[in-house]
Design brief:
about 325 residues, Rossmann fold, 5-stranded parallel sheet, 4-stranded parallel sheet, binds N-carbamoyl-L-aspartate
């Protein structure tokens, strides 16, 4: 167990996933193994695993993929789910995160999946409720389940289905992942840049200064910055494109035409620089801005597969959170 993981388990319920840093390589491997095992199960067997357990989804920001996949994953395991969103609950009346969490616990919730605009909110909720909390995205901080589903997508597409059942510190040796776009505001970029190098990958962050400050290098070893997209792409086995998070720009102005010119992944650029690279995007994508529609729909795109892997990986995270043992 790593030092971080030890600290976490001492302070937060076992099975919580608050930051990707909490997971050792062995933990990641165990999650992938469990994911694969759940995938091979008969639906009837799978739906008995969390039968009668209660899972709450607490969403303070909009979501399509993450929320739906957590919800469908919980249901396919037999759990009962309830969704609380800021738009239709007492959150709108000013209730605090702590009080909402305690209310959900009093109603029998055994695990809370939280998306929140404030970085660190899942830590507060886990501390105050003592329940396992799964971070479904906290502000500009982290999105650990996204990094895990991205990892499973990369392993499956680059090394084949069977490679996605376990990992070691060398699993992504020789793989360069170029993450391009609004790195500054992206919790997806942060969680991936923290995870992938620990498995041997090289991560190149690419974008203009305004969206990618040089401090991003502080994310750790195995991470570098390259501002020239064509140059970065020429080294890529994986091109992960990110949306400009306009809801977090806070007055920052961007010349969109210039951005598209320099950073859009379009068919011409793809053919010239990275005809074989796997194309990924966490969604929601803005076609015609960071990515051209034909590239998103093209043969190298794994964008829809990412969504399917999300469902699979999140099933394993729920089983882990609710402390069920499944023979792998
Ligand atoms: C991302 C998010 O919410 O951080 N989406 C997702 O969960 N798949 C990325 C984004 O909003 O751009």
């Amino acid at each position: 167990m790593t030092e971080t993981a030890r600290t976490q388990s001492a302070r937060y319920a076992t099975g919580s996933l608050l930051s990707i840093r909490d997971l050792s390589v062995e933990d990641v491997s165990a999650i992938l193994g469990l994911t694969a095992r759940l995938q091979t199960m008969h639906p009837a067997e799978r739906s008995a695993i969390l039968a009668g357990r209660r899972v709450a989804l607490l969403f303070y920001e909009s979501s399509t993929r993450t929320r739906t996949s957590f919800e469908l994953a919980a249901k396919s395991l037999g759990a009962t789910t309830t969704l609380v969103s800021d738009k239709s609950s007492s959150i709108e009346k000013g209730e605090s995160l702590k009080d909402t969490g305690l209310t959900l616990r009093a109603l029998g919730a055994e695990c809370i999946i939280l998306r929140h605009p404030a970085s660190g909110a899942p830590f507060v909720l886990a501390r105050e409720t003592g329940l396992p909390v799964l971070n479904a995205g906290d502000g500009m901080h982290e999105h650990p389940s996204q990094a895990l589903l991205d990892l499973r997508t990369i392993l499956t597409r680059l090394h084949g289905e069977s490679s996605a059942t376990s990992v070691s510190a060398a699993s992504l040796q020789g793989v360069t992942v170029v993450i391009t776009g609004d790195i500054l505001h992206s919790r997806v970029a942060r969680s991936n840049a923290l995870l992938l190098p620990r498995l041997g990958a090289r991560v190149i962050l690419c974008g203009p200064e305004k969206l990618l400050p040089k401090e991003a290098l502080g994310l750790g070893p195995g991470v570098e910055i390259e501002r020239d997209f064509d140059r970065a792409l020429k080294r890529a086995q994986v091109a992960m494109m990110l949306r400009i998070q306009k809801e977090r720009l806070a007055g920052l102005e961007l010349d969109l035409a210039d951005y598209i010119d320099r950073y859009q992944l379009n068919a011409e650029r793809q053919a010239a620089c990275a005809p074989k690279a796997l194309v990924m995007h966490p969604g929601p994508m803005i076609r015609g801005l960071e990515i051209a529609g034909d590239v998103a729909d093209g043969p190298n795109s794994a964008i829809e597969e990412q969504v399917a892997h999300g469902l699979a990986v999140r099933s394993a995270l729920l089983v882990r959170a609710l402390g069920k043992s499944v023979t792998v």
